[in-house]
Specification:
There is one protein chain. The protein is mainly beta and 261 residues long. It has one domain: Jelly Rolls. It has 1 helix and 15 strands; from the N terminus they run ββββββββββββαβββ. It has one helix spanning 198-205, and strands spanning 18-23, 28-31, 46-54, 60-66, 73-79, 83-90, 93-100, 108-115, 128-133, 136-140, 155-158, 183-192, 226-230, 247-249, 252-255.
Length: 261
């Protein structure tokens, strides 16, 4: 049984003709870092979103962003043998979210929000991480102390874990396949420099049909906070206003069967 559950009201979507196909062995897309790329801002709330159709239920990283080349400040969405999860790590402190359910063979919309609005600066009990799957809130971390959220320009990858060796994240190269490459299809990957609310996530999910993230629609009001949008429409270009085009490393682009395409 797939996780997808109808919710809300479907509005018109955006034409999505292609997606990226990842082989689970060495395919990935590398996000740009040239010393001034900031998908997220220091100590501010943020959101990561991805549409995916996994072929294999295994430990794999769908989307990861870090800011220092090490594991001290990073965020990632992953799958394992039992379900879908995410983590936000700040100075070695970890906020985790997880939802266990069958997920292979169907498209899913996964959103992880990191809400730092409880305080103007990082510190004790200031962060709540939330995991949404197919429009529904599935888990939250509760209040977690993350001493530092971001301090430098961002690195990242789609389809693998960004760092080759990461002993603190749970995705260390030594504990399994280096990189933890994803096996399946990916489309419409995005980041915001704010934490989307419940209504916004439901509107972006749009009952299984991706929307135009550059324009506000229904409860979605955060188009001005969009910092990256890799649609995989036969390329790895950024469709946000930032121009952070990514570099494809082996993924192939194919006609998509994403609902509403």
């Amino acid at each position: 049984m797939a996780i997808i559950t109808p919710t809300g009201v479907r509005t018109s979507g955006i034409t999505s003709t292609h997606c990226g196909s990842f082989d689970g062995t060495n395919d990935y897309v590398n996000l740009t870092n040239n010393g001034n790329v900031d998908y997220f801002k220091s100590c501010e709330s943020c959101t990561m979103s991805i549409w995916c159709k996994p072929d294999t239920a295994e430990l794999a990283c769908l989307f990861s962003i870090d800011d220092d080349g090490g594991w001290h400040h990073n965020k990632y969405i992953y799958t394992d043998a039992t379900g879908i999860g995410g983590r936000c790590i700040g100075s070695g402190q970890i906020a985790s979210v997880k939802y266990s359910a069958p997920y292979t063979g169907a498209w899913h919309h996964i959103v992880m929000t990191m809400d730092h609005s409880l305080s103007p600066s990082a510190g004790s009990g200031t962060t709540v991480v939330r995991l949404y799957i197919d429009g529904f809130l599935r888990d939250d971390s509760g209040k977690v102390s993350l001493t530092t959220i971001d301090t430098a320009s961002d690195y990242g990858a789609i389809g693998k874990y960004h760092m080759d060796s990461d002993p603190g994240s749970g995705l260390a190269a030594s504990s399994g396949s280096p990189g933890h490459y994803f096996d399946g299809l990916i489309a419409e990957v995005s980041t915001w420099n704010c934490a989307l609310g419940d209504g916004e996530v439901e509107s972006v999910y749009n009952k299984g049909v991706p929307i135009n993230l550059s324009s506000n629609s229904r409860d979605y009001k955060s188009s001005s906070k969009l910092t990256g949008w890799w649609r995989f429409q036969n390329n790895a270009n950024d469709s946000s206003s930032k121009g952070y085009n990514a570099t494809n490393n082996g993924a192939t682009f194919q006609t998509t069967d994403l609902p509403g395409a």
